[in-house]
């Protein structure tokens, strides 16, 4: 788990951020930035770079490695600090709260502005960027990618998709984005996987979820990673989150991904509520009706 850097922000100085930004700039060309090049990237003197490197190393924001040269690279904590500071300066965030969810590819925290919001740090690529690079379209055109590039592109892509889908599809409202971080509406409710529906709710919730899948398809996207773990349920309905891997409907494998999403959802409801899901519901029929625009409701 990447350490929460919010508590460090008050003790970091302007020149510390110059140093972090300079290392970030240097990492566009190499994973490990040569010490001799940092003053130019950071717009700091040699002496200032030495002092700021010591401060940032002490706080775990950068890492040092001696290979053929003395090199420095950002830790994810350093990248978090740059993104968080930018969002604070824009007045998108005024307070930082507790974790809402920690996963392999993202960390989510409660933050505040005019109301409670959610801050999502994308972590794609930090430990397995080669695997992510091969699987995700937003990096497949690059021969060499860093974890920093992979995480930033995931955040940019998810933010763009949320902007296109909201409010016609039940997704979190996007607020802001910087580097690998997205600020969005904080979702109320309970994750579908942890929800125990009453018998008369099962088909209704399933219908709501398939309706949102159909709405996203009509808007031009297939989620491509749909499961009970990225759906929230509350009294108002459902909300679908985690969209960085979504594909446009003109993608060569869009219909295959659509069918897989529906198989995942239908399979979950059949496993948990077998007696309340009609036997004649089939994922391929649902996929076909969504693709041709004829889907209306699973209850009809």
Automatic annotation (TrEMBL):
Coiled-coil region(s): none
Molecular function per GO: ATP binding; metal ion binding; protein serine/threonine kinase activity
Keyword Transferase applies: yes
Keyword Nuclease attached: no
PANTHER family: SER/THR-PROTEIN KINASE RIO2 (PTHR45852), SERINE_THREONINE-PROTEIN KINASE RIO2 (PTHR45852:SF1)
Similarity comment: Belongs to the protein kinase superfamily. RIO-type Ser/Thr kinase family.
Protein name, per record: non-specific serine/threonine protein kinase
Organism (species): Natronococcus amylolyticus DSM 10524
């Amino acid at each position: 788990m990447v350490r929460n850097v919010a508590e460090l922000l008050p003790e970091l100085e302007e020149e510390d951020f110059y140093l972090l930004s300079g290392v970030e700039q240097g990492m566009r060309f190499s994973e490990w930035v040569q010490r001799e090049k940092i003053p130019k990237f950071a717009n700091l003197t040699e002496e200032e770079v030495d002092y700021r490197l010591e401060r940032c190393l002490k706080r775990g924001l950068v890492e040092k490695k001696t290979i053929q040269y003395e090199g420095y690279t950002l830790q994810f904590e350093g990248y978090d600090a740059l993104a968080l500071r930018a969002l604070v300066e824009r007045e998108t965030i005024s307070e930082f709260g507790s974790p809402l969810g920690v996963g392999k590819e993202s960390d989510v925290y409660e933050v505040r502005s005019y109301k409670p919001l959610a801050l999502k740090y994308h972590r794609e690529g930090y430990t397995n960027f080669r695997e992510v690079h091969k699987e995700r379209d937003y990096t497949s055109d690059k021969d060499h990618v860093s974890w920093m590039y992979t995480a930033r592109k995931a955040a940019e892509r998810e933010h763009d998709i949320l902007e296109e889908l909201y409010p016609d599809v039940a997704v979190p409202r996007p607020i802001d984005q910087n580097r690998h971080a997205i600020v969005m509406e904080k979702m109320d409710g309970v994750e579908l996987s942890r929800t125990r529906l009453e018998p008369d709710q099962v088909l209704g919730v399933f219908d709501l979820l398939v309706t949102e899948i159909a709405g996203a398809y009509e808007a031009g996207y297939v989620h491509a990673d749909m499961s009970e773990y990225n759906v929230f349920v509350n009294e108002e309905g459902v909300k679908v989150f985690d969209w960085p891997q979504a594909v446009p409907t003109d993608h060569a494998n869009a219909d295959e991904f659509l069918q897989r999403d529906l198989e995942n959802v239908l399979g979950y409801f059949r496993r948990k509520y077998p007696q309340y899901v009609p036997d004649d519901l089939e994922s391929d029929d649902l996929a076909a009706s969504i693709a041709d625009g004829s889907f209306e409701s699973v209850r009809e």
